[in-house]
Amino acid sequence: MYDFVIVGARCAGAALACFLGRAGYKVLLIDQYDRPGPTLSTHIIGETDVYDSLGIRKQMETAGAPTMTRMRVDLEGTVMEADMVITPRTLGLRRELFDAMLLKQAADCSRVQVMLNTRVTGVIWEGERVKGITCKRANGTSCSFYAKAIIGADGRHSLIAREVQAATIAMSDANHLDVVYAYLANVEPLPIPTVEWYWTDRGVVICNPIDQGLHCIALMLPGDDFSGWKGSLAACYLERIDQLKTLRPRLQNAQIVGKIRGVRRLVSYIRQPFGRGWALVGDAAAHLHPVAGVGIDNAVCSAWYLADELDQYMQGYKTWQHAMESYQQRRDERILPQYEASLKTLARTGRAFTDSASEQSLRMLCTFPSLVKALARRSEEVLTLLQGVIDE
Ligand SMILES: Cc1cc2nc3c(=O)[nH]c(=O)nc-3n(C[C@H](O)[C@H](O)[C@H](O)COP(=O)(O)OP(=O)(O)OC[C@H]3O[C@@H](n4cnc5c(N)ncnc54)[C@H](O)[C@@H]3O)c2cc1C
Q1: pTM, whole model, 2 decimals?
Q2: Residue 296 Cα to ligand 1 middle (Å)
Q3: What is the phi/psi pair of residue 266, to 5°?
Q4: Neighbours of 54 (CB within 10 A)
Q5: For residue 326, is pLDDT > 80?
Q6: CATH number for the domain whose boundaries are 64-92+177-265
Q7: Which CATH number fits domain 2-43+94-172+268-347: 3.40.50.2000, 3.20.20.480, 3.40.50.300, 3.50.50.60?
Q8: Best of 120, 123, 296 to mutate for ligand 1, by most ligand atoms within 8 A of CB?
């Protein structure tokens, strides 16, 4: 009998196990993998206090994760760049390194037992309450485990969410672009590590430096754009990024390292994250399209909120219902605005930037430094001023 069984040992599950283990709870952390390998991600990890509290921020930096402090937006060749807001910096680190760091932090907690190569196959009910899980080990043996609560941290295709029939609070697949990405060596770096966002006439390309001097370049395009790529994936991918005229000169010696990965038919959703004897965290509870670039932080921060509320429950300060409602409220305050914002971003991808008046106004902005200064000094009037330029 455990206090908690956590299904899924990547960023949501491993972080949760770490928080709960450190608080003294007996935790079983299960994953079907034998170690955290590469997984879908453009690897933009917003640096928040949570990585400090997990004790991995220094490790992330020493693993070579570049610290990106700037954001560059390229609108079909017109470039704007500035220091980032929202977070002062963000780190680029391959997931096999990042997830392994989190897993090690969890495994180092004496109260946390890590069980890999174990696929969870179902949940065990006692009346209307979940009380355990059934699993299959890699050697074919079956086993079951019981806990005060079962936590699904098992990602987008969450078995736990399916088994408990977690209700959907919000869902959209409107304008959801498919994603293909790869790591590239020898991309000429910008002088200051920067997140680069390219608006193309069809979608978005994101390019950012990661560890080992590599860059991760992700193409986010309508599904149709990838038809015909089968059999010549690398050539099509390189041809597509080569169309970006401000990136092209930096790709002269670029080479793809490892596999090209992708995902189709992405859906954004937010689910009811708890019920009797169960809770969901990370992508199992809410998934936003990767244009949001916040899935990792959301998974880890939600794990933080959940651990905090589970502790309140276990200490008897709150009932299960009260603790889980607080968890949901904290989760929703963080994720709901991001959900809306990411849908707006996706809606903008559907329109090519062909309006010559607005194109002209942006070029003017970049050509006349005094105009930029005038705009900056009159920030409250910026929108009106921009409108005036467009009207002219
Ligand atoms: C193309 C793409 C790019 C992205 N880029 C970014 C980015 O730049 N920045 C960012 O912050 N986020 C990004 N995200 C989102 C981010 O990758 C996810 O939000 C994050 O991985 C969610 O973590 P998680 O731990 O909840 O789930 P996952 O990472 O999906 O982990 C779930 C784990 O559960 C295990 N599991 C599943 N089912 C079972 C089972 N039945 N039994 C046992 N184990 C099981 C799996 O093996 C897996 O290890 C991106 C997503 C995509 C698709």
Answers
A1: 0.94
A2: 8
A3: -75, 145
A4: 21
A5: yes
A6: 3.30.9.100
A7: 3.50.50.60
A8: 296
